[in-house]
Give the backbone structure.
Amino acid sequence: MPDANRQIVLDQIPQGKLGPEHFKLVETARPEAAEGEVLVRTRYISLDAANRAWMQGATYRSALTSGQVMAGGALSEVVTSHDPSLKPGDLVWGDTGWQDYATAPAKRLTKLPAMEPVTHLLSVYGVAGLTAYFGLLECGKPKAGETVVVSAAAGSVGSLVGQIAKIKGCRVVGIAGGEEKGRWLVDELGFDAAADYKAGNLRAQLKENAPGGIDVYFDNVGGDIFETCLFAMNNFGRIACCGALSQYDGAPPAHGPRGVPGLIVTKRLTLRGFVMYDFDDRRDEALKDLQTWVAEGKLKVQEDILDGLENTPAALIGLLAGENRGKRMVKV
Ligand code: NAP
């Protein structure tokens, strides 16, 4: 086991777009676990759009500060444990950051089952799968025959949302950047249609692909796409507010969605924000359904795995630019 610990440090908080200059790679000594703590070796780092949002200020977690090891969820293996609940070789999930090794109190780590492929613990059975499952089913409450629209549809959360909506008997339209991603959503994942927000005139594309209007909008992006979908909502529609990634990377927007309060009233819409951890007590129920759908071939899992801790900054910058298809992670 190497004595050194490579760490990606957030060197400066970006004011505009995130770039490689905001990170630096340092090498320190491998840490030792204290009483009640565990030493883990990172195996896969989860890349999430929210990593960038944490640099903007406090969210459901405190804001990141310059000079700290870049925060992020990871799948790790226990090396040494000073807590009886975990033993060497156990797989755990936790916010252990972008580094080879980390120490943490055992209570801040979640023990995971061994499975193949192990990466499914970060994608369909991890935050992405549980977010898609609870966000759609609990906040969107889709009914068979309704039309569901999801943004960032070819990403890790969005690609699962659309497929779960199909399993529930809905018509599904995915919004993604570029024709190729749209073709993949329809041909490979079974979406009914795709709209390319980069091609312009999203309103007309939605009219064509969701002619009866939108019953459920699963919002991953906020901003102009949110506003366009809002106008296309049917009365009594539901909007699951999952994230606003169009606002994460860059200067604050010059204008926000217009017409929001009035439309919510006249259409009697339910908008519900959620954080996946709100549903922690129902995790087993979700995992059982997700496992069944994967085993039956109804839910396809797309993973986008890059190699090397040193490539983690580029992996996040690329995710924000739309490079990924499905769940992006870095193998360490
Ligand atoms: P992701 O969807 O795998 O990747 C991000 C995708 O967003 C990119 O591939 C890109 O695809 C698209 N995108 C980038 N900029 C965009 C823009 N300005 N407008 C529209 N689309 C844009 O990322 P993720 O980590 O899974 O995150 C998806 C959303 O879920 C985020 O908003 C995140 O904060 C949220 N989330 C929420 C929870 C929760 O508990 N509420 C948990 C996890 C994630 P294109 O090529 O299509 O542009």
The CA atoms of residues 112 and 322 lie 29 Å apart. The domain at 127-277 is CATH 3.40.50.720 (Rossmann fold). The mean pLDDT is 95. The chain has two domains: 4-122+302-331, 127-277.
